[in-house]
Fold this sequence. Notes:
Elements: H1 14-28, H2 36-46, H3 59-74, H4 79-89, H5 103-116, H6 121-133, H7 149-162, H8 167-180, E1 187-192, E2 197-202, E3 212-215, E4 221-224, H9 227-232, E5 240-242, H10 244-253
Antiparallel strand pairs: 1-2, 1-5, 2-3, 3-4
Helix pairs in contact: 1-6, 3-8, 4-5, 7-10, 8-10
Organism: Pseudomonas savastanoi pv. phaseolicola
Protein name: Type III effector HopE1
Amino acid sequence: MDLPLSVTVRECSSAQNKALASSTFAWNRIRPKVHPSSVLETYRRSVISMNRVSGSSSATWQAVNNLVEQVSERTTLSTTGYQTAMGRLNKPEKSDADALMTVRRAQQYTDSAKRTYISETLMNLADLQQRKIYRTNSGNLRGAIEMTPTQLTDCVRKCREEGFSNCDIQALEIGLHLRHKLGISDFTIYSNRKLSHNYVVIHPTNEFPKGAIVDSWTGQGVVELDFKTRLKFKHREENYSVNANMHEWIERYGQAHVID
């Protein structure tokens, strides 16, 4: 994922949040070696490259893909997204199929962050994350995978106000709209400790014979859960756990948070 382990904070646990501030100063000294012409060409190609499930053109697939696009458009500020985007844009020659994050999504994160915070971009994103997004009413720092349902409600509200979220809340947004907007309930929200990433998996159905990963944070969209996808996402049982608190929140409170 092109990030040193010392600054990988994608799951945003409380321990990682406390370490984030110091890591941002090192990142602000890093200048990506981006080649504009090659990035632009790769970006043009990737605009139409949401990874379709093989052989699927069903209305269900299209609805899920549209949902991913909507979540992506609403959420373009992300601390971890911006961190990963810098590394992705340093390797424009790498195809989206072989990378975790697409060039298109990397460009979205970078453009939005630079518009919002012209200077000290990562430090300001980290400050927003720690000061507001993951700060609970009790004053503690908690990542979304550690929150109670009540805390998740508050976190979702703050994320929507700022147009900000990391992979945890983006996965929650996907899950709640699958369940309460599209009527799809056979899915799981996973936290992958090996990848430090949260994403949704739709279990095998007629529309998705092998199952599918649904992921707005990386920009990969709806991806068939075949062998190559399992390798890319390190999707193995020993690497992931179910975000049970998010499933509980979706069942109890999700309906009231659907965006039409």
